[in-house]
């Protein structure tokens, strides 16, 4: 699977960790985040990753900022992006199975390294169930202006 990761200055170390782990799991990782701890604007990275996923340049996206909230808000402005902030494995699994989330948002100041790996694994391995959940995702998509 091809996975694009975008991050701001708060997410540099977590991106490195997740990139290594994803590659060990056999995934191709595309880095679209900063590699510097100098302050940058997280919305740019959220938007870039979301656009790439929607355009099918990547199968999934992972975005990282301090809390995961701001970068997810930016990503969700992109039509077709469904970014979910997840703080545990169950949230990540359900985001994929019930919401067909295509972008995982993580807070580098919120979750520790081992938990971030577990969340990422649950997200990447999750499969959308469709059915009644498909109807709901379609409704959400219809709300986009």
Account of the protein in words:
It is a single chain. With 145 residues, the chain is of the alpha/beta class. It has one domain (2-142): Sugar-phosphate isomerase, RpiB/LacA/LacB (Ribose 5-phosphate Isomerase B, Chain: A). The chain is built from 6 helices and 5 strands. It has helices at 12-24, 42-54, 69-75, 89-99, 113-125, 132-142, and strands at residues 2-7, 28-31, 60-65, 83-85, 103-107. The chain has a 5-stranded parallel β-sheet with strand order 2-1-3-5-4, sandwiched between helices. The protein is globular and about 40 Å long. It starts with a strand and ends with a helix. 41% of the residues are buried. The mean pLDDT is 96.
**Low-pLDDT ranges:** none
CATH superfamily: Sugar-phosphate isomerase, RpiB/LacA/LacB
Oligomer: single chain
Question: What class, by secondary structure content?
Answer: alpha/beta
Distance between the termini: 31 Å
Order of helices and strands: EHEHEHEHEHH
Whole-number mean pLDDT: 96
Largest sheet: 5 strands, parallel
Question: Any idea what the CATH architecture is?
Answer: 3-Layer(aba) Sandwich
Overall 3D form:
globular
CATH fold-level topology = Ribose 5-phosphate Isomerase B, Chain: A
Number of helices: 6
Strand order of the largest sheet: 2-1-3-5-4
Percentage of residues in helical conformation: 40-55%
Secondary structure: number of strands: 5
Give the percentage of residues in beta strands: 15-25%
Number of domains: 1
CATH class: Alpha Beta
Q: Round the Cα radius of gyration to an integer and report it.
A: 14 Å
């Amino acid at each position: 699977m091809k996975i694009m990761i975008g991050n701001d200055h708060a997410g540099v170390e977590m991106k490195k960790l997740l990139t290594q782990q994803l590659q060990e799991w056999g995934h191709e990782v595309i880095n679209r985040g900063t590699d510097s701890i100098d302050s940058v604007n997280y919305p740019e990275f959220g938007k870039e990753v979301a656009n790439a996923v929607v355009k099918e340049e990547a199968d999934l996206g992972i975005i990282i900022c301090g809390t995961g909230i701001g970068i997810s808000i930016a990503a969700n402005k992109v039509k077709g992006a469904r970014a979910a902030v997840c703080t545990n494995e169950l949230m990540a699994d359900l985001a994929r199975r019930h919401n067909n989330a295509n972008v995982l948002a993580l807070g580098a100041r919120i979750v520790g390294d081992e938990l971030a790996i577990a969340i990422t694994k649950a997200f990447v391995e999750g499969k959308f169930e469709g059915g009644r959940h498909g109807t709901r995702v379609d409704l959400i998509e219809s709300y986009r202006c």
